[in-house]
């Protein structure tokens, strides 16, 4: 896949199922010049989900066709069953609009994006404890005990990858965690590596080169 020479700022948010990452991502929605990617998945749509809001739902055959066409920025199979991917179109839209792009994706997808776009800012959301994470998963009432056990094991594996991220936010207090994620995004907009062209023009105004 050929990436644009001048890519938009990418904000990756990952974390175990039940860590509260979707809620924290929602806290960013009033930030100006911010675009939120909608992932594509082959898993069945739940009753409370609207297509195109959290996910675009597709068949395995349609998903595979998109893979073959190079339509995904990243994609991965979760639990050896359903596929998830971020359509490349969101990167193109962010580039065209000059917006930051927020990706709420898992560890596998984050690793792919970091390889392709190493200047991406990666944030990992950590639950305060295994016990609290299990309680959150059970309170959702969406999964069987067997499925919850799989999610907890996957959470353990994902936690081991948290040191690969640029930032870690412990979601033990929603207000504080929301402020921390928001602060990370705002601060990332001031990184020198992302402001070279702007700095160059300012320097030119001083007669510099």
Can you tell me the number of structural domains?
1
Structural class designation: alpha/beta
CATH 2nd-level architecture? 3-Layer(aba) Sandwich
Shape: globular
Rounded average pLDDT: 90
Number of strands: 9
Number of helices, counting only DSSP H or I runs of 4 residues or more: 8
CATH topology: Rossmann fold
The CA-CA distance between the termini, in Å, is 34 Å
Poorly predicted runs are 1-6
What is the ordering of alpha helices and beta strands? EHEEEHEEHEHEHHEHH
Give the strand content.
15-25%
Largest sheet: 5 strands, parallel
Strand numbers in spatial order across the main sheet? 2-7-1-8-9
Rg calculated over all Cα atoms: 18 Å
CATH superfamily: P-loop containing nucleotide triphosphate hydrolases
CATH class: Alpha Beta
Model description:
The chain has 209 residues and is an alpha/beta fold. It has one domain: P-loop containing nucleotide triphosphate hydrolases (Rossmann fold, 3-Layer(aba) Sandwich), CATH 3.40.50. It contains eight helices and nine strands. The strands form two sheets. A five-stranded parallel beta sheet has the order 2-7-1-8-9, with helices on both faces. A four-stranded mixed beta sheet has the order 4-3-6-5. A hairpin with a 3-residue loop joins strand 5 (72-78) and strand 6 (82-87). The longest helix has 15 residues, at 145-159. It is globular, with a radius of gyration of 18 Å. The protein starts with 9 loop residues before the first strand and ends with a helix. The model is unreliable at 1-6 (pLDDT under 50).
